[in-house]
Amino acid sequence: MERLQKVMAEAGVASRRKSEKMIQEGHVKVNGQLVTELGVKVTAKDLVVVDGVPLSRQRLEYYLLNKPRGVVSTAHDDKDRRTVVDILADDEITTRIYPVGRLDYDTTGLLLLTNDGELANKLTHPKYEVEKTYVAKVKGQVTNDDLKQLRLGVMVDGRKTKSAKAKITATDAKKGTTIVQLTIHEGRNHQVKKMLKAVGHEVLKLHRESYGFLTLAGVPAGQWRRLKTSEVMQLKKL
User: Fold this and answer.
1) What's residue 171's pLDDT?
2) SS3 label, residue 210
3) What residue ranges define each of the domains in the chain, with the CATH number in brackets?
4) How many whole angstroms separate alpha carbon 179 and alpha carbon 26?
5) Residue predicted with more confidence, 238 or 150
6) CA-based, 20 to 30 A from 194: which of 41, 47, 78, 181?
């Protein structure tokens, strides 16, 4: 048996805390009975209904995708563009999954997808500070002063970013470009692009090469793999 709010969170209804609030506000029924107090436990045989919709308690799935350019990091797109979920669906993955966080349309690299709502909420919550490493090709020659600013934090949308790791991996004086590796543990919209722009460098290409301890080793662009049980457990410990 598991607590009702945990079951709701794992089904992707909302975070555990938000699920608790929904229970207390009278949004949830178990086997036809309204539940408004916390502490109720349910089994797989119990019928849980949230706002009139039966809860789907499917097997939890976890995937790592190497996102290619020109694909949207969402489950559905109103402009009918190809989504990251479509890539897995093309390979006969029929579980209802969704991406953990987002990568821009033109950004490539490591993206997690799951139907574990509780884990997804934790991984994207700022307080858990999961490290994400990006490689960016930028205009201009990045200087040591630029790197120092990035490490200490720069102003983005009126707020200073937290400390980051930054280093130059290559330069091309003829083309006037630099390759920068940047590791952050926040998840603001377009954060890496905005950080580099704040020190005077427009991003030409951006690739996420790692997420926490996970890397893209053995996963070509546009391909994916299931996470190992040990990797899922390690993610939950983050």
Assistant:
1) 95
2) strand
3) 2-54 (3.10.290.10), 62-126+217-237 (3.30.70.580), 131-211 (3.30.70.1560)
4) 53
5) 150
6) 78
CA-closest candidate to residue 207, choices 139, 112, 71, 109: 109
Strands (E) located in the chain: 2-3, 28-30, 33-35, 41-42, 48-50, 53-54, 62-67, 98-99, 108-114, 132-139, 155-156, 159-160, 165-172, 177-184, 203-211, 214-215, 224-226
Judge whether 194 and 182 are in contact, CB under 8 Å.
no
pLDDT, tens only, 153-192: 999 999 999 999 999 999 999 999 999 999 999 888 899 9
Task: Report which of 107, 156, 104, 165 is spatially closest to residue 132, judged by C-alpha positions.
Answer: 165
Among 21-30, 51-60, 96-105, the minimum mean pLDDT is found in 51-60
Instruction: State the catalytic residues.
Output: 104
pTM over 0.70: yes
Residue 236 reports pLDDT greater than 90: no
Contacts of 124 (CB under 8 A, 6+ apart): 100, 101, 187
Residue 164 CA to residue 141 CA, distance in Å, equals 19
* Cα 20–Cα 186–Cα 80 angle in degrees, nearest 5: 80
CB 139 within 8 A of CB 187: no
d(CA 123, CA 121): 6
